[in-house]
Description:
Layout lengths: L1 H18 L1 H7 L1 H27 L4 H11 L1 H14 L4 H26 L3 H11 L21 H31 L12 H31 L5 H21 L2
Helix pairs in contact: 3-5, 4-6, 5-6, 6-8, 6-9, 8-9
Amino acid sequence: AEAVATSGDRSGRKSEEEDMGGLVFLEEASGLVPAGLCSLATQGVAGYSIHRHLSNYTEPRIQRYMIRIILMVPLYSMSSFFSLAFPSIAFYLTTIRSCYEAYVLYNFMSLCLYYVGGPNDLVMHWETDDAQVPLSYLWCTCCLVNLKLNGVFLRRIVQGVLQFVIVKLVLTVAALVLELAGGYQDGSWSFTHGYLYVTIFYNVSIAVALYALVIFYLAAEPYLRPQRPLLKFIMVKSVIFVTYWQSLLLSL
């Protein structure tokens, strides 16, 4: 019986070691060094871009928004690296990063509005040109046939984006409280833990915000075209959306 128990203990330890294999790899130099080098490279590129903006600070309003958006890159890389190096603080680093996501969405919306001369000028363009949102199955705008582009529409779009800022702050506070109380359990899909409910609310909120940005871009694209913001739009959406879903899939 003692031999069987010993064998069982060894099997249990072996299974536990196998489960922790990925974590051990990340804690070793073989995992941290490549991650650190990638993080440094990312910060170098972002730092150079920010330096160029500050050295040629000729359009303060525009460049202010751009610098805030670019800062998302080093923040993401540093939070990812330190989360790998110190798993015990990963939750708090991810929380800070997520809050900055909301701030980036707000700044991107403000940047686009500034590109078109402000809300009043954009509404005037819409009314003068009798503009319509292009109908597309790809962008889920096929049902917006009778949508009027006016001040009310723009207000709803801005509200759709800004609600994510508010919801994200509320969810952050809720997650922190639950984590300190032991009821959050990051990565747990149990109905008894807060992670599931925070994730659901987060997904609904960010989906509304990103869809509002898509509708806004389609409606304002003719007036934004000289500024060529499409690549910025795609990158902002990709960084926020893809990184979040990556972390979500890894938690499964």
